[in-house]
Automatic annotation (TrEMBL), chains A, C:
Function as written in the Swiss-Prot or TrEMBL entry: The pyruvate dehydrogenase complex catalyzes the overall conversion of pyruvate to acetyl-CoA and CO(2). It contains multiple copies of three enzymatic components: pyruvate dehydrogenase (E1), dihydrolipoamide acetyltransferase (E2) and lipoamide dehydrogenase (E3).
Pfam families registered for this protein in UniProt: E1_dh
Domain Dehydrogenase E1 component: 39-322
Enzyme Commission code(s) on record: 1.2.4.1
Major enzyme class: oxidoreductase
Keyword Nucleotide-binding part of the UniProt annotation: no
Gene Ontology molecular function, alphabetical: pyruvate dehydrogenase (acetyl-transferring) activity
Superkingdom assignment: Bacteria
Subunit note: Heterodimer of an alpha and a beta chain.
Name this polypeptide is given: Pyruvate dehydrogenase E1 component subunit alpha
UniProt keywords, alphabetically: Oxidoreductase, Pyruvate, Thiamine pyrophosphate
Catalytic activity: N(6)-[(R)-lipoyl]-L-lysyl-[protein] + pyruvate + H(+) = N(6)-[(R)-S(8)-acetyldihydrolipoyl]-L-lysyl-[protein] + CO2
Co-factor requirement: thiamine diphosphate
Organism: Oceanobacillus limi
From TrEMBL, chains B, D:
Official protein name in the record: Pyruvate dehydrogenase E1 component beta subunit
Gene3D superfamilies recorded: 3.40.50.920, 3.40.50.970
Species this protein is from: Oceanobacillus limi
Requisite cofactors: thiamine diphosphate
CDD domains assigned to the protein according to its UniProt record, in alphabetical order: TPP_PYR_E1-PDHc-beta_like
Signal peptide: none
GO molecular function: oxidoreductase activity
């Protein structure tokens, strides 16, 4: 199957352009946009790790190493599209327009972190693995029924492919030919379980065959390959040609979450051969003369500022309101729930 | 707490005799006709019109874009319905039998009921899940479960269960109009057991309101769905023995109509709760704690519960022994009265 | 995919031998054994339908049309193997050694119908669709751990492939390389839903690719093809070569159950071109001179007798014991359950 | 009702200070060593030793044939465990968090708990399902559910929940030795909150037996798992105010130790039940109906329940407001005492 689904790439590890046909599209502005977003979410990610260490937010699942997959896919989306991320896809969410301070809030145990900016169709990160996959099929089905050209993209990991909801979601999308992109980030681990123990199939892409869903396997650390393949899946979706499964092969550089210790289960040196996506893009930019040291430095400063401000905003955010425990469960809450709320508010008044 | 609904005309003006299942069908038809965003989906609901004929004729009338046969995939049905509901549609999803809702339990528990909470109302999941429930029709195993308590324990979803054709249509319309997810349970055993006059127009029965079907002074009987006829018969027999029962049909299982329960029990001082689910963890316990919380000083006897036993709903050869009977209820009434 | 998974057959509709290589194996005794079992389960099935009509048993799901699939697969099993049937596979169960009167009892709402004869590893028919599939993976995994050569076979329909448990079960079997045969009877309907609405893949066989499980598509109405393909899957399983997915393409001649009306959803004349498996075998037997009118008639009489006796036995069976409601839930039942039992037995004593 | 077990030596002879999670680990180690058919399986239980280290060192010691990392697939884990259990093994299946048990709900509901019933004991499913539960550790959403009531309502499975290291090991061993399926719930919040002396040898704590942790005359406090320390502290504070509480740790959630409940409440005439699950449908209701059924005439005040609210377990910023606190319990004790 590996030969049926060769890993597609546009630039290689050393930053060499492999597909000349893309040459014209990879212009200065275009390339820097990718760099900007990847650097931006990397900065966010590292900041979040630090905040967790300092006890300023809760457990956090870093996405370092997966920036190309998240940025490349998110940039391929249109404004009316829908995003269904997991807990590890805040990079994709930020790129697609999620608010950064709210994203920090999310990792501080605040529901405010699940509320997208108006007009941005971003679902809360799915915590139960694979459950978002049927949602993306359903939302896309709705778009199809409405006759729009919008689509839904579901993010999920290699581990998620083992769940029933992966299967049921893809089958629905296939039967109803919904405009859905199933975007898999195969980072080769599900917590401690390596993909070889997760499945006995050589690729994730081949799982599309079970549903008659076209699929493609790409180098998930090559942001351009991710972008263009997502774009062509999106084009198919918008044109009524149904869903696509994309396997973006990548690598989780660090721990599963800040509570995890990968030395328990990863062989020494595993993954050291992986050139992480920002380095690769930097190499490409240097190779093809897009790199301007000063401009990039300015960009870095701007980004670091933005992230700092977002942290400050998060920390200045009003304390979580106890009322919020009760107020959003129902549109029209039952009397007995209101009674629980009142009596509890009364109880804590004294404190 | 109850849904804001316009009362369309005088609901009793034009009526038609319907069975409970016809009333459900009529309720769906009414909503499909009224609002283009309403969808019906599930296994065999389309061309076949449902294995019980609950959706009979709907696909013919509204097309297979609005009345949709889905793959055999409960988690898929509920999961995609979440997507449809969030994105402007009002899915009425059928689960063929309540015993087959469990594969979708995760979706209901972690998304249908929580999405509004976790987005502070930004996203909501206005959908209806219909499921026939209960024993007594000689169905194969697992087809006869009555596991409402698994859903009343789950914050974020309402649960209703009509006992009569009138309530069936009225509650269905209320459920469809409700901005929150509603689980709509259908007493299979009552599908065709009787007919009553049902308004042909749109009307609703408010979610959260129980119904005193018969007033009485001595003992309060509380049930819902297929157990309502049982307590009514038991009340009649008790009457012959000089015990005057009040008969309450809860109609909504979450949120419970605590007022109607408390008021009645304050009057009678005695309660018999009847349901076909298992005693342990059954919804009867919630009725009991409601009484404990609100009417403790009025109680003349312990609350009595007549329920299915703490065993899986049996294969049908023994189901009559599993289900509460008029005799068991009568015995409980007597015990309670004579305590 | 249809060309990647061509339908394999050994005899055609007209009873002609297509694969000469099997000629020697298809000897008199061998062929008649198939005929015997197919006729036997057909007789059982028709009897059950009649009993239901007369109100002597409950709702019944006939398997008419699927006799070759059930007999062919069951005959390929060994005595230590495990069978995981659905509600429509009583033909396979009977062929594998289930007791006939107990099988009738099952359809009369009696748990006694789930108890297999000692030494026969037959699971109760799975009623919740696809749930038996992980069981078969688990039981086979246990056999592998024990180091036996036994296997497990899971029966399931086309509709079952849409459930998450199908997916999770196959994945486990693949990851742990369990000796399991996933035997699909594609009878082209799941109640009223035709396979085209159930899935958008051309075949069920191709679903094996998702798991790296070898799969094969066969003519499920050709009992020999079913037998020999099941046998080679079994051989692989016994030799430690893991699971196989078999798609046996067949046709449900009648209604889904006795409560179902297929004229509601099946186009007129759909399926009339299907030559049902007993006719096909009869043609083969006549073509190749295995058919002996008198012998066959004697066989029919014997079978009809057996079925009649089984019905009588079922109807003579002691009434269901109320105690059985309580006695088998736990090996060591809690006090409170015993109390419920006692009080109920006391209550009904008066009646 | 309790499992027949040989008491090995004098369990208090040699002990070791352990946390609750170490005691669980030790319990599994004991059983893996004792019986070759015992298996541990689940997500990350092998090489990683579990996300909480509950299975730390087990794969190293017993090999990856007996301590198995599975795919991310709860229904698959439970479904294949049914097969393993039926076919001679004793699987201890870990569900990583109780909030992720729902995808396996169907398998547990329709097979784990029913297979013995439907084969009249011919097949049985002797397995243990372990799951950490509960809030209070600042975990992401869904990781903090406490939905034991979904399983106590399900006939055919036992449910236990230790509050202390000693009970943790003893109940684990009892669960593994039990011929019926057992759901073993682990109070995450108590995993490392304290240490106690735990016998290094094999011993068991009988399933079905509650434990009076402190005797008292005025009010009975009832809880389990992570709420036991809360009621103990509340009892202390009440003592300072002259209210003498009896403290009961249920330990087994199904079957309930009705005797220990009834006996205590008959003495005190007052009960406060505490759990972190939602009030509606919570197991506290079963405790309440037990009291209603067995001690009605002894009650001096309505039963009081202090529970999680009828809202989904919140994101962690608000979890302290969701969880019962010593203050809320104390208030309930006072209200009940002064009724
Ligand atoms: C239903 C469910 N089971 C278990 C978990 C616990 N869990 C959280 S992340 C994770 C691994 C996910 O792996 P993968 O899908 O590859 O995504 P990645 O974390 O690598 O991005 C597990 C097992 C969960 N969140 N949901
Ligand atoms: C989980 C579940 N959902 C729904 C049903 C109701 N049901 C019984 S049989 C059936 C169709 C099964 O179709 P298929 O798998 O093709 O098997 P066949 O009946 O054709 O043999 C359905 C939907 C069920 N038994 N279990
Ligand atoms: Mg991964
Ligand atoms: Mg079929």
């Amino acid at each position: 199957m590996e030969d049926k689904f060769p890993i597609k790439r546009i630039i290689d590890d050393q930053g060499n352009l492999l597909e000349e046909s893309f040459k014209d599209q990879l212009n200065d502005q275009f390339v820097k946009r990718f760099y900007y977003h990847m650097y931006r979410i990397r900065t966010f990610d590292r900041k979040a790790k630090n905040l967790q260490r300092q006890g300023r937010i809760g457990t956090y699942p870093p996405f370092e190493g997966q920036e190309a997959a998240q940025v490349g896919s998110a940039l391929a989306l249109g404004p009316g599209d829908w995003m269904f991320p997991t807990y590890r896809d805040h990079g994709a969410m930020l790129t697609f327009g999620a608010d950064m301070s709210r994203t920090f809030l999310y990792w501080n145990g605040r529901v405010e972190g699940c509320v997208p900016p108006d007009g941005k169709n971003i679902f809360p990160a799915a915590v139960p693995i694979a459950t978002q996959i049927p949602h993306a099929a359903g939302v896309a089905w709705a778009e199809k029924k409405k006759g729009t050209r919008n689509l839904a993209i579901a993010y999920f990991g290699d581990g998620a492919t083992s769940e029933g909801d992966f299967h049921e979601g893809l089958n629905f999308a296939s039967v109803f030919q919904t405009p859905t992109i199933f975007f898999n980030q195969n980072n080769r681990y599900a917590i401690s379980v390596p993909i070889e123990k997760q499945m006995n199939s050589e690729t994730i892409a081949q799982k599309g065959i079970a549903y008659g869903i076209p699929s493609v396997r790409i180098d998930g650390n090559d942001c351009f390959s991710v972008y263009f393949e997502t774009l062509s899946a999106a084009e198919r979706a918008r044109n009524g040609d149904g869903p696509t499964l994309i396997e973006a092969v990548t690598w989780r550089t660090g721990a599963h979450t800040t509570a995890d210790d990968p030395t328990k289960y990863r062989p020494d040196n595993q993954g050291i051969d992986v050139v992480e996506p920002i380095i690769r893009l930097e190499r490409f930019m240097k190779n093809y003369e897009f790199w301007d040291e000063k401009e990039m430095e300015e960009m870095h400063v701007l980004i670091e500022d933005e992230v700092e401000r977002a942290v400050q905003e998060m920390e200045k955010y009003p304390k979580a309101k106890v009322e919020d425990l009760f107020d959003h469960v129902f549109a029209n809450p039952p009397q007995q729930l209101l009674a629980q709320k009142e009596s509890y508010l009364e109880h804590i008044k004294g404190e | 707490m109850t849904t804001e609904l316009k009362k369309v005309g005088n609901p009793s003006s034009v009526t038609q005799k319907m069975t409970l299942i016809q009333a459900i069908n009529d309720g769906m038809k009414t909503m499909l006709a009224e609002d283009e965003t309403t969808l019906v989906l599930g296994e065999d609901v389309g061309k076949n019109g449902g294995v019980f004929r609950a959706t009979d004729g709907l696909q013919e009338q509204f097309g297979n874009d609005r009345v949709v046969d889905t793959p055999l995939s409960e988690s898929g049905i509920i999961g995609t319905s979440v997507g449809l509901a969030v994105n402007g549609f009002k899915p009425i999803a059928e689960i063929q039998f309540m015993g087959f809702i469990y594969p979708a339990y995760d979706q209901i528990m972690t998304h249908v009921s929580r999405l509004r909470m976790k987005t502070m109302g930004h996203f909501s999941v206005p959908m209806v899940i219909r499921a026939p429930y209960g024993a007594g029709v000689r169905a194969p195993e697992v087809h006869s479960d009555s596991t409402e308590a698994l859903f009343t324990h789950m914050p974020g979803i309402k649960v209703v269960c009509p006992a009569t054709p009138y309530d069936a249509k009225g509650l269905l319309i209320a459920a469809v109009k409700d901005p929150d997810p509603v689980l709509y349970l259908e007493p299979m055993r009552s599908y065709r057991s009787s007919r009553e006059e049902v308004p042909v127009e749109e009307y609703h029965v408010s979610i959260g309101e129980g119904n005193v079907r018969k007033e009485g002074e001595d003992v309060t009987l509380i049930a819902w769905g297929a157990m309502v006829p049982i307590i009514e018969k038991a009340a009649q027999k008790a009457e012959e023995q000089g015990i005057n029962c009040e008969v309450i049909d809860l109609r909504t299982l979450y949120p419970l109509d605590k007022d109607v329960i408390a008021e009645s029990v304050k009057k009678t001082g005695r309660a018999v709760i009847v349901h076909e689910a298992h005693a342990t963890g059954g919804l009867g316990n919630d009725v009991a704690t409601t009484i404990n919380d609100q009417a403790f000083l009025y109680m003349k006897a312990p609350i009595n519960r007549v329920t299915g036993f703490d065993v899986p709903v049996p294969f049908f050869a023994l189901e009559e022994h599993y289900l509460p009977t008029v005799e068991r209820v009568l015995k409980a009434i007597q015990d309670t009265y004579q305590f």
